[in-house]
Amino acid sequence: MEKLWAGALHQPLDQIAEEFNSSITVDCKLWEQDILGSIAHANMLGKQGIIPQDEAAALAEELKKIQKELKTGKLSIDWKSEDIHTFVEQTLTQRLGEVGKKLHTARSRNDQVALDLRLYLRQEIQTLQSDLKEMTEKFLEQAQKHKGTIMPGYTHLQRAQPITFGHHLMAYTMMFLRDIGRFQDAQERMNVSPIGSCALAGTTYPIDRQWEAESLGFSEIAHNSLDGVSDRDFCVELLSACSILMMHMSRFSEELILWSSWEFQFVTLADPYTTGSSIMPQKKNPDMAELIRGKTGRVYGDLIGTLTMLKGLPLAYNKDMQEDKEAVFDALQTVKLCVQILSAMVETLTVKADNMLKAAQTGFLNATDLADYLVKKGLPFRKAYQIVGAIVAYCLENNCTLESLSMETYQQFSPLFAKDVYTEIALATCVAKRCSQGGTSEASVEAQIAYVKQQLKIL
User: Fold this and answer.
1) Is CATH 1.10.40.30 what the domain over 363-458 is classified as, yes or no?
2) Is residue 277 annotated as a catalytic residue, yes or no?
3) Alpha-carbon distance 454 to 450, whole Å?
4) Residue 114, number of CB atoms within 10 A of its CB
5) CB-count exposure of residue 12 (10 Å: 0-12, 13-18, 19+)
6) What is the mean pLDDT of residues 29-39?
7) Which of 92, 228, 401, 437 is the residue whose CA sits 20 to 30 A from 304?
8) Which residues, at least 6 apart from 205, have a Cβ–Cβ distance to it below 8 Å?
9) pLDDT per position as a tens digit, 396-428
10) Do residues 92 and 66 lie in contact, with contact meaning Cβ atoms separated by under 8 Å?
Protein backbone atom coordinates (compact mmCIF):
# COMPACT_ATOMS: atom_id res chain seq x y z
CA MET A 1 0.00 0.00 0.00
CA GLU A 2 1.36 3.41 -0.98
CA LYS A 3 2.57 5.56 1.91
CA LEU A 4 1.16 9.05 2.34
CA TRP A 5 4.69 10.27 3.02
CA ALA A 6 6.52 8.45 0.20
CA GLY A 7 7.38 11.61 -1.80
CA ALA A 8 11.19 11.84 -1.61
CA LEU A 9 11.94 8.25 -0.62
CA HIS A 10 12.80 5.63 -3.24
CA GLN A 11 13.18 2.45 -1.18
CA PRO A 12 10.42 0.78 0.82
CA LEU A 13 10.60 0.30 4.56
CA ASP A 14 12.27 -2.82 5.86
CA GLN A 15 9.60 -5.31 7.02
CA ILE A 16 10.64 -5.05 10.67
CA ALA A 17 10.72 -1.24 10.42
CA GLU A 18 7.26 -1.36 8.81
CA GLU A 19 5.83 -3.22 11.80
CA PHE A 20 7.77 -1.06 14.24
CA ASN A 21 6.46 2.13 12.64
CA SER A 22 2.83 1.04 12.38
CA SER A 23 0.33 2.30 14.96
CA ILE A 24 -2.99 1.12 13.55
CA THR A 25 -3.46 -1.59 16.18
CA VAL A 26 -3.54 1.22 18.77
CA ASP A 27 -4.98 4.25 16.98
CA CYS A 28 -7.77 2.19 15.38
CA LYS A 29 -9.83 3.38 18.37
CA LEU A 30 -9.85 6.80 16.72
CA TRP A 31 -11.60 5.73 13.50
CA GLU A 32 -14.86 7.51 14.21
CA GLN A 33 -13.17 10.69 15.44
CA ASP A 34 -10.96 10.66 12.35
CA ILE A 35 -14.02 10.50 10.11
CA LEU A 36 -15.89 13.20 12.04
CA GLY A 37 -12.85 15.48 11.89
CA SER A 38 -12.47 14.81 8.17
CA ILE A 39 -16.13 15.61 7.49
CA ALA A 40 -15.73 18.96 9.29
CA HIS A 41 -12.52 19.63 7.36
CA ALA A 42 -14.14 18.82 4.01
CA ASN A 43 -17.05 21.13 4.80
CA MET A 44 -14.67 23.91 5.77
CA LEU A 45 -12.68 23.50 2.53
CA GLY A 46 -15.89 23.83 0.54
CA LYS A 47 -17.20 26.76 2.56
CA GLN A 48 -13.96 28.67 2.02
CA GLY A 49 -13.84 27.89 -1.67
CA ILE A 50 -10.54 26.04 -1.31
CA ILE A 51 -12.14 23.13 -3.16
CA PRO A 52 -15.43 23.19 -5.11
CA GLN A 53 -18.58 22.88 -3.00
CA ASP A 54 -19.79 19.79 -4.87
CA GLU A 55 -16.48 18.02 -4.22
CA ALA A 56 -16.62 18.94 -0.52
CA ALA A 57 -20.15 17.56 -0.37
CA ALA A 58 -19.04 14.35 -2.09
CA LEU A 59 -16.19 13.94 0.40
CA ALA A 60 -18.49 14.43 3.39
CA GLU A 61 -21.13 12.08 2.00
CA GLU A 62 -18.65 9.30 1.28
CA LEU A 63 -17.05 9.71 4.69
CA LYS A 64 -20.48 9.23 6.26
CA LYS A 65 -20.90 6.02 4.25
CA ILE A 66 -17.51 4.75 5.47
CA GLN A 67 -18.54 5.59 9.03
CA LYS A 68 -21.80 3.65 8.68
CA GLU A 69 -20.08 0.67 7.07
CA LEU A 70 -17.47 0.46 9.81
CA LYS A 71 -20.22 0.59 12.46
CA THR A 72 -22.23 -2.19 10.83
CA GLY A 73 -19.22 -4.33 10.01
CA LYS A 74 -19.72 -4.09 6.25
CA LEU A 75 -16.29 -2.49 6.05
CA SER A 76 -13.32 -3.75 8.07
CA ILE A 77 -10.14 -1.93 8.96
CA ASP A 78 -7.15 -2.95 6.88
CA TRP A 79 -4.52 -3.82 9.47
CA LYS A 80 -1.79 -3.44 6.86
CA SER A 81 -2.42 0.32 6.84
CA GLU A 82 0.19 2.35 8.68
CA ASP A 83 -2.38 4.10 10.85
CA ILE A 84 -6.10 4.82 10.99
CA HIS A 85 -5.69 8.15 9.18
CA THR A 86 -4.04 6.38 6.25
CA PHE A 87 -6.77 3.76 6.16
CA VAL A 88 -9.62 6.29 6.06
CA GLU A 89 -7.98 8.51 3.44
CA GLN A 90 -6.99 5.64 1.17
CA THR A 91 -10.45 4.06 1.43
CA LEU A 92 -11.92 7.43 0.46
CA THR A 93 -9.50 7.79 -2.45
CA GLN A 94 -10.28 4.29 -3.73
CA ARG A 95 -13.94 5.30 -3.90
CA LEU A 96 -13.71 8.90 -5.13
CA GLY A 97 -10.44 8.90 -7.05
CA GLU A 98 -8.79 12.30 -7.45
CA VAL A 99 -11.48 14.02 -5.37
CA GLY A 100 -10.55 11.84 -2.39
CA LYS A 101 -6.99 13.11 -2.62
CA LYS A 102 -8.20 16.67 -2.02
CA LEU A 103 -9.33 15.97 1.56
CA HIS A 104 -5.84 16.44 2.98
CA THR A 105 -5.58 20.00 1.61
CA ALA A 106 -4.53 22.42 4.39
CA ARG A 107 -4.04 19.58 6.83
CA SER A 108 -1.20 17.41 8.13
CA ARG A 109 -1.28 14.14 9.97
CA ASN A 110 0.37 16.09 12.79
CA ASP A 111 -2.65 18.28 13.49
CA GLN A 112 -5.03 15.52 12.37
CA VAL A 113 -3.90 13.02 15.00
CA ALA A 114 -3.89 15.73 17.68
CA LEU A 115 -7.47 16.56 16.73
CA ASP A 116 -8.65 12.95 16.73
CA LEU A 117 -7.09 12.26 20.11
CA ARG A 118 -8.70 15.31 21.71
CA LEU A 119 -12.10 14.35 20.29
CA TYR A 120 -11.76 10.79 21.58
CA LEU A 121 -10.52 11.66 25.05
CA ARG A 122 -13.15 14.36 25.46
CA GLN A 123 -15.83 11.73 24.94
CA GLU A 124 -14.11 9.19 27.19
CA ILE A 125 -13.92 11.68 30.06
CA GLN A 126 -17.67 12.16 29.91
CA THR A 127 -18.21 8.40 30.22
CA LEU A 128 -15.71 8.14 33.07
CA GLN A 129 -17.30 11.04 34.94
CA SER A 130 -20.70 9.40 34.66
CA ASP A 131 -19.33 6.13 36.08
CA LEU A 132 -17.53 8.01 38.84
CA LYS A 133 -20.68 9.86 39.86
CA GLU A 134 -22.55 6.56 39.98
CA MET A 135 -19.87 5.07 42.22
CA THR A 136 -20.02 8.11 44.50
CA GLU A 137 -23.76 7.60 44.85
CA LYS A 138 -23.16 4.00 46.01
CA PHE A 139 -20.86 5.35 48.71
CA LEU A 140 -23.56 7.86 49.69
CA GLU A 141 -26.16 5.11 49.99
CA GLN A 142 -23.95 3.11 52.35
CA ALA A 143 -23.03 6.24 54.31
CA GLN A 144 -26.70 7.06 54.82
CA LYS A 145 -27.36 3.50 55.97
CA HIS A 146 -24.45 3.55 58.42
CA LYS A 147 -24.42 7.14 59.64
CA GLY A 148 -24.84 5.84 63.19
CA THR A 149 -22.67 2.70 62.94
CA ILE A 150 -19.83 3.21 65.41
CA MET A 151 -16.35 2.00 64.51
CA PRO A 152 -12.78 2.84 65.52
CA GLY A 153 -11.17 5.75 63.76
CA TYR A 154 -7.46 5.25 63.18
CA THR A 155 -4.27 7.25 62.98
CA HIS A 156 -0.98 5.43 62.31
CA LEU A 157 -3.24 2.34 61.95
CA GLN A 158 -3.76 2.56 65.72
CA ARG A 159 -7.22 3.00 67.23
CA ALA A 160 -7.65 6.69 67.91
CA GLN A 161 -11.21 7.97 68.42
CA PRO A 162 -14.70 6.60 67.78
CA ILE A 163 -16.28 7.58 64.48
CA THR A 164 -19.09 6.22 62.35
CA PHE A 165 -18.72 4.06 59.28
CA GLY A 166 -20.84 6.59 57.42
CA HIS A 167 -18.38 9.31 58.34
CA HIS A 168 -15.50 7.18 57.09
CA LEU A 169 -17.22 6.57 53.76
CA MET A 170 -17.98 10.25 53.36
CA ALA A 171 -14.26 11.01 53.44
CA TYR A 172 -13.98 9.10 50.16
CA THR A 173 -16.90 10.91 48.57
CA MET A 174 -15.04 14.17 49.18
CA MET A 175 -12.04 12.71 47.34
CA PHE A 176 -14.27 11.63 44.46
CA LEU A 177 -15.76 15.12 44.18
CA ARG A 178 -12.25 16.47 43.72
CA ASP A 179 -11.58 13.74 41.15
CA ILE A 180 -14.67 14.73 39.17
CA GLY A 181 -13.49 18.34 39.30
CA ARG A 182 -10.06 17.36 38.02
CA PHE A 183 -11.58 15.51 35.05
CA GLN A 184 -13.74 18.53 34.29
CA ASP A 185 -10.69 20.80 34.39
CA ALA A 186 -8.78 18.43 32.12
CA GLN A 187 -11.69 18.29 29.70
CA GLU A 188 -11.97 22.07 29.59
CA ARG A 189 -8.29 22.55 28.75
CA MET A 190 -8.48 19.65 26.29
CA ASN A 191 -11.33 21.26 24.37
CA VAL A 192 -9.02 23.25 22.09
CA SER A 193 -8.82 22.53 18.37
CA PRO A 194 -5.35 22.07 16.82
CA ILE A 195 -6.67 21.56 13.27
CA GLY A 196 -5.23 24.14 10.90
CA SER A 197 -1.87 24.08 12.63
CA CYS A 198 -0.86 21.69 9.83
CA ALA A 199 2.62 20.20 10.12
CA LEU A 200 3.91 22.98 12.37
CA ALA A 201 3.72 26.39 10.64
CA GLY A 202 0.08 26.79 9.65
CA THR A 203 -0.99 27.04 6.00
CA THR A 204 -1.15 29.43 3.06
CA TYR A 205 -4.78 28.48 2.33
CA PRO A 206 -7.59 30.81 3.53
CA ILE A 207 -8.95 28.33 6.08
CA ASP A 208 -11.48 29.14 8.80
CA ARG A 209 -10.09 27.44 11.89
CA GLN A 210 -12.69 28.92 14.21
CA TRP A 211 -15.60 27.64 12.11
CA GLU A 212 -14.09 24.17 11.87
CA ALA A 213 -13.42 24.09 15.62
CA GLU A 214 -16.94 25.17 16.49
CA SER A 215 -18.47 22.58 14.17
CA LEU A 216 -16.64 19.92 16.19
CA GLY A 217 -17.73 21.34 19.55
CA PHE A 218 -14.43 22.94 20.55
CA SER A 219 -14.52 26.06 22.69
CA GLU A 220 -11.43 27.63 21.10
CA ILE A 221 -8.47 27.00 18.80
CA ALA A 222 -4.80 26.48 19.54
CA HIS A 223 -3.30 29.95 19.13
CA ASN A 224 0.19 28.79 18.13
CA SER A 225 0.66 26.22 15.40
CA LEU A 226 3.85 24.78 16.90
CA ASP A 227 2.03 24.23 20.18
CA GLY A 228 -1.03 22.94 18.36
CA VAL A 229 0.79 19.88 17.00
CA SER A 230 3.25 19.28 19.84
CA ASP A 231 1.01 19.80 22.88
CA ARG A 232 0.24 16.65 24.83
CA ASP A 233 -0.38 18.39 28.14
CA PHE A 234 -3.98 17.25 27.88
CA CYS A 235 -2.82 13.62 27.94
CA VAL A 236 -0.57 14.23 30.93
CA GLU A 237 -3.30 16.08 32.79
CA LEU A 238 -5.82 13.33 32.13
CA LEU A 239 -3.32 10.67 33.20
CA SER A 240 -2.61 12.66 36.35
CA ALA A 241 -6.33 12.84 37.18
CA CYS A 242 -6.62 9.10 36.51
CA SER A 243 -3.65 8.40 38.79
CA ILE A 244 -5.09 10.43 41.66
CA LEU A 245 -8.45 8.68 41.32
CA MET A 246 -6.68 5.31 41.31
CA MET A 247 -4.80 6.33 44.44
CA HIS A 248 -8.10 7.08 46.18
CA MET A 249 -9.64 3.80 45.08
CA SER A 250 -6.50 1.93 46.08
CA ARG A 251 -6.63 3.39 49.60
CA PHE A 252 -10.20 2.26 50.03
CA SER A 253 -9.39 -1.13 48.52
CA GLU A 254 -6.61 -1.55 51.07
CA GLU A 255 -9.11 -0.86 53.84
CA LEU A 256 -11.57 -3.37 52.39
CA ILE A 257 -8.77 -5.93 52.35
CA LEU A 258 -7.97 -5.25 56.01
CA TRP A 259 -11.60 -5.00 57.14
CA SER A 260 -12.57 -8.29 55.47
CA SER A 261 -9.72 -10.19 57.14
CA TRP A 262 -10.30 -12.44 60.17
CA GLU A 263 -8.25 -10.00 62.23
CA PHE A 264 -10.79 -7.20 61.66
CA GLN A 265 -14.04 -8.83 60.49
CA PHE A 266 -15.64 -5.42 59.94
CA VAL A 267 -17.11 -6.24 56.52
CA THR A 268 -17.88 -9.15 54.23
CA LEU A 269 -17.33 -8.79 50.52
CA ALA A 270 -20.00 -10.30 48.26
CA ASP A 271 -19.02 -13.64 46.72
CA PRO A 272 -19.11 -12.34 43.10
CA TYR A 273 -16.19 -10.04 43.94
CA THR A 274 -13.98 -12.54 45.73
CA THR A 275 -12.19 -15.76 44.81
CA GLY A 276 -11.13 -18.92 46.60
CA SER A 277 -7.92 -20.87 46.90
CA SER A 278 -6.87 -23.83 44.76
CA ILE A 279 -5.57 -25.62 47.86
CA MET A 280 -7.26 -24.05 50.91
CA PRO A 281 -11.03 -24.57 50.71
CA GLN A 282 -11.81 -22.13 53.55
CA LYS A 283 -10.33 -19.11 51.75
CA LYS A 284 -12.31 -16.11 50.54
CA ASN A 285 -9.81 -13.79 48.94
CA PRO A 286 -10.48 -10.08 48.22
CA ASP A 287 -8.92 -10.39 44.76
CA MET A 288 -10.90 -7.58 43.11
CA ALA A 289 -9.79 -5.11 45.78
CA GLU A 290 -6.23 -6.37 45.45
CA LEU A 291 -6.35 -5.94 41.68
CA ILE A 292 -7.52 -2.34 42.02
CA ARG A 293 -4.62 -1.77 44.40
CA GLY A 294 -2.22 -3.44 41.95
CA LYS A 295 -3.54 -1.72 38.83
CA THR A 296 -2.91 1.64 40.48
CA GLY A 297 0.78 1.10 39.78
CA ARG A 298 -0.05 0.37 36.16
CA VAL A 299 -1.83 3.71 35.75
CA TYR A 300 1.04 5.49 37.52
CA GLY A 301 3.33 3.83 34.96
CA ASP A 302 1.25 5.21 32.09
CA LEU A 303 1.62 8.71 33.56
CA ILE A 304 5.36 8.45 34.21
CA GLY A 305 5.96 6.85 30.82
CA THR A 306 4.19 9.70 29.05
CA LEU A 307 6.03 12.37 31.04
CA THR A 308 9.34 10.66 30.32
CA MET A 309 8.51 10.35 26.62
CA LEU A 310 7.77 14.07 26.39
CA LYS A 311 10.49 15.49 28.61
CA GLY A 312 13.26 15.84 26.02
CA LEU A 313 11.32 16.51 22.83
CA PRO A 314 12.18 19.62 20.80
CA LEU A 315 9.37 21.36 18.92
CA ALA A 316 7.34 20.50 17.01
CA TYR A 317 6.06 16.97 16.27
CA ASN A 318 8.31 13.96 16.86
CA LYS A 319 7.53 10.28 16.24
CA ASP A 320 8.07 9.62 19.96
CA MET A 321 4.62 11.13 20.46
CA GLN A 322 3.05 8.10 18.80
CA GLU A 323 3.55 6.49 22.23
CA ASP A 324 1.01 8.82 23.84
CA LYS A 325 -2.08 6.89 22.76
CA GLU A 326 -1.21 3.44 24.07
CA ALA A 327 -0.55 4.85 27.55
CA VAL A 328 -3.64 7.03 27.79
CA PHE A 329 -5.91 4.35 26.27
CA ASP A 330 -4.60 1.79 28.73
CA ALA A 331 -5.09 4.10 31.70
CA LEU A 332 -8.65 5.00 30.73
CA GLN A 333 -9.63 1.38 30.20
CA THR A 334 -8.08 0.38 33.53
CA VAL A 335 -9.66 3.23 35.49
CA LYS A 336 -13.13 2.72 34.03
CA LEU A 337 -13.05 -0.99 34.89
CA CYS A 338 -11.81 -0.32 38.43
CA VAL A 339 -14.55 2.27 39.00
CA GLN A 340 -17.22 -0.18 37.86
CA ILE A 341 -15.85 -2.99 40.04
CA LEU A 342 -15.47 -0.84 43.16
CA SER A 343 -18.95 0.60 42.69
CA ALA A 344 -20.43 -2.91 42.66
CA MET A 345 -18.31 -4.00 45.64
CA VAL A 346 -19.53 -1.07 47.75
CA GLU A 347 -23.14 -1.60 46.75
CA THR A 348 -23.06 -5.29 47.78
CA LEU A 349 -20.93 -4.82 50.90
CA THR A 350 -22.12 -6.40 54.16
CA VAL A 351 -21.17 -4.35 57.21
CA LYS A 352 -20.64 -6.13 60.55
CA ALA A 353 -21.74 -3.33 62.84
CA ASP A 354 -21.43 -5.40 66.04
CA ASN A 355 -17.79 -6.18 65.34
CA MET A 356 -17.06 -2.55 64.57
CA LEU A 357 -18.61 -1.49 67.86
CA LYS A 358 -16.70 -4.14 69.84
CA ALA A 359 -13.45 -2.93 68.31
CA ALA A 360 -14.31 0.65 69.23
CA GLN A 361 -14.92 -0.40 72.84
CA THR A 362 -11.28 -1.38 73.30
CA GLY A 363 -8.19 0.71 72.90
CA PHE A 364 -9.29 3.70 75.03
CA LEU A 365 -10.82 5.57 72.08
CA ASN A 366 -12.68 7.80 74.54
CA ALA A 367 -9.51 9.01 76.29
CA THR A 368 -9.68 12.41 74.57
CA ASP A 369 -13.26 12.79 75.72
CA LEU A 370 -12.17 12.01 79.28
CA ALA A 371 -9.58 14.78 79.05
CA ASP A 372 -12.21 17.14 77.60
CA TYR A 373 -14.43 16.30 80.58
CA LEU A 374 -11.78 17.63 82.95
CA VAL A 375 -11.24 20.70 80.78
CA LYS A 376 -14.93 21.51 81.06
CA LYS A 377 -14.49 21.29 84.84
CA GLY A 378 -11.87 24.04 84.63
CA LEU A 379 -8.60 22.12 84.27
CA PRO A 380 -6.07 23.25 81.62
CA PHE A 381 -5.95 20.76 78.74
CA ARG A 382 -2.28 19.82 79.22
CA LYS A 383 -2.92 19.00 82.88
CA ALA A 384 -6.03 17.03 81.94
CA TYR A 385 -4.01 15.21 79.28
CA GLN A 386 -1.41 14.12 81.88
CA ILE A 387 -4.06 12.89 84.31
CA VAL A 388 -5.85 10.85 81.63
CA GLY A 389 -2.53 9.41 80.49
CA ALA A 390 -1.93 8.21 84.03
CA ILE A 391 -5.44 6.72 84.17
CA VAL A 392 -4.90 4.84 80.89
CA ALA A 393 -1.61 3.46 82.24
CA TYR A 394 -3.45 2.31 85.38
CA CYS A 395 -6.12 0.59 83.27
CA LEU A 396 -3.49 -1.21 81.21
CA GLU A 397 -1.78 -2.46 84.35
CA ASN A 398 -5.07 -3.63 85.84
CA ASN A 399 -6.68 -4.95 82.66
CA CYS A 400 -9.74 -2.69 82.78
CA THR A 401 -11.36 0.05 80.69
CA LEU A 402 -12.23 3.68 81.32
CA GLU A 403 -15.92 2.77 81.45
CA SER A 404 -15.39 0.07 84.10
CA LEU A 405 -13.20 2.15 86.42
CA SER A 406 -14.86 2.85 89.78
CA MET A 407 -15.65 6.39 90.91
CA GLU A 408 -13.40 5.88 93.92
CA THR A 409 -10.47 5.16 91.62
CA TYR A 410 -11.30 8.11 89.38
CA GLN A 411 -11.25 10.50 92.31
CA GLN A 412 -7.82 9.25 93.35
CA PHE A 413 -6.59 10.89 90.14
CA SER A 414 -8.71 14.05 90.42
CA PRO A 415 -11.52 15.25 92.71
CA LEU A 416 -13.17 16.83 89.66
CA PHE A 417 -14.55 13.48 88.54
CA ALA A 418 -18.23 12.87 89.26
CA LYS A 419 -20.83 10.27 88.23
CA ASP A 420 -21.63 12.16 85.01
CA VAL A 421 -18.24 11.08 83.65
CA TYR A 422 -19.67 7.70 82.62
CA THR A 423 -22.24 9.36 80.35
CA GLU A 424 -19.62 11.70 78.92
CA ILE A 425 -17.27 8.89 77.89
CA ALA A 426 -19.90 6.54 76.45
CA LEU A 427 -19.05 5.91 72.81
CA ALA A 428 -22.46 7.05 71.59
CA THR A 429 -21.97 10.32 73.46
CA CYS A 430 -18.44 10.72 72.11
CA VAL A 431 -19.74 10.42 68.56
CA ALA A 432 -22.88 12.52 69.06
CA LYS A 433 -20.93 15.41 70.61
CA ARG A 434 -18.69 15.73 67.57
CA CYS A 435 -21.26 17.82 65.75
CA SER A 436 -18.87 20.41 64.33
CA GLN A 437 -19.03 20.86 60.56
CA GLY A 438 -17.41 17.84 58.94
CA GLY A 439 -17.51 15.88 62.20
CA THR A 440 -18.65 12.33 62.83
CA SER A 441 -22.02 12.90 64.51
CA GLU A 442 -25.09 11.71 62.66
CA ALA A 443 -26.20 15.30 62.07
CA SER A 444 -22.78 16.19 60.64
CA VAL A 445 -22.75 13.14 58.38
CA GLU A 446 -26.26 13.99 57.18
CA ALA A 447 -25.03 17.48 56.29
CA GLN A 448 -22.07 16.01 54.40
CA ILE A 449 -24.35 13.68 52.45
CA ALA A 450 -26.60 16.60 51.50
CA TYR A 451 -23.55 18.62 50.42
CA VAL A 452 -22.17 15.87 48.18
CA LYS A 453 -25.57 15.22 46.61
CA GLN A 454 -25.85 18.92 45.79
CA GLN A 455 -22.35 19.00 44.32
CA LEU A 456 -23.09 15.98 42.13
CA LYS A 457 -26.01 17.89 40.63
CA ILE A 458 -23.76 20.86 39.85
CA LEU A 459 -20.71 18.99 38.54
Assistant:
1) yes
2) yes
3) 6
4) 26
5) exposed
6) 98
7) 228
8) 48, 50, 105, 106
9) 999 999 999 999 999 999 999 999 999 999 999
10) yes
Query: Does residue 5 carry a pLDDT above 50?
Result: no
Report the C-alpha gap between 20 and 346 in whole angstroms: 43
Q: Quick one: what percent of the chain has pLDDT higher than 70?
A: 97
Query: Cα dist. 364→222, 368, 427 in Å?
Result: 60, 9, 10
Annotated catalytic residue, options 130, 219, 261, 277: 277
Q: How many residues does the chain have?
A: 459
Give the start-to-end residue ranges of the domains of the chain: 15-105, 110-137+165-354, 363-458
Beta bridge partner(s), residue 221: 193
Closest CA to 367 of 354, 341, 385: 385
- CATH T-level fold of 15-105: Fumarase C; Chain B, domain 1 (1.10.275)
Q: What letter does residue 231 receive in the DSSP assignment?
A: -
- Within 10 angstroms of residue 32's Cβ, the number of other Cβ atoms is 17
d(C-alpha 79, C-alpha 25), whole Å? 7
CA 65/CA 38 separation, integer angstroms: 13
Residue 256's pLDDT is 98
Q: Does 168 qualify as catalytic in the annotation? A: no
Distance CA(225)–CA(197), nearest Å, equals: 4
Is domain 110-137+165-354 classified as CATH 1.20.200.10? yes
Sign, CA dihedral 280-282-287-288, equals: positive
Which amino acid belongs to residue 375?
V
The reply to whether 15-105 and 363-458 are identical in fold is no
- Of the residues 76, 156, 278, 436, only one is catalytic, namely 156
Helix residue spans in 191-232 (DSSP H): 209-215, 225-230
